[in-house]
Amino acid sequence: MQEVSIYRLTDEQWDTMLLAVPKLNVRDRHVFEAILHVLSTALPWQDMPEDFGITSRTAWNRYQKWQEQAIWEDLLGSFLGCFPHHVRMGWERTLREAALQRAQKFGTRKRPLVHEMAVIPALVRDN
């Protein structure tokens, strides 16, 4: 099995991201790197390498939180904006392909989301 290298942000990239998304803290750098690794390799969250210094649960929770707060798109956009066009396109392709692999490998959610559930009125009988 081929080992996948881990991408580490440069200080310049991180500084650019801090300017774009001021809600970040120092620890978020490792969290972003971990999330980027999982999303670009199509690994299951629980198979995330320990090299990031955080648990896969922490990375997953922060990813969910950033998604809910609409921060993830800003983070990813500022990260990709650090690269020349051809490198940015390579990252975007890698992330798209990994998302497709994840969907094929793990399928869709097994449980319906709340907004997908139908509400059926109960029958009421007069006595």
SSE order in H/E notation? HHHHH
Share of helical residues:
40-55%
Biggest sheet record: none
Our Rg estimate from Cα atoms comes to 19 Å
| Residue windows where pLDDT falls under 50 for at least 5 positions | 110-124
Name the overall outline.
globular
User: What percent strand?
Assistant: under 5%
Structural class category: mainly alpha
Number of helices: 5
The total count of strands amounts to 0
The termini sit apart by: 70 Å
What is the count of distinct domains? Answer: 1
Mean pLDDT: 82
Features:
mainly alpha; 127 residues; Transposase
Written overview of the protein:
By secondary structure, this protein is an all-alpha fold. The protein has one domain. The chain is 54% helix and 0% strand. It has five helices and no strands. Helix 1 packs across helix 4 and helix 2 packs across helix 3. The longest helix has 22 residues, at 85-106. The chain is globular, with a radius of gyration of 19 Å. The chain starts with 10 loop residues before the first helix and ends in a 21-residue tail after the last helix.
Please give a quick description of this structure.
The protein has 127 residues and is mostly helical.
Chain-wise SSE layout:
Blueprint: H1 11-20, H2 28-41, H3 56-68, H4 72-80, H5 85-106
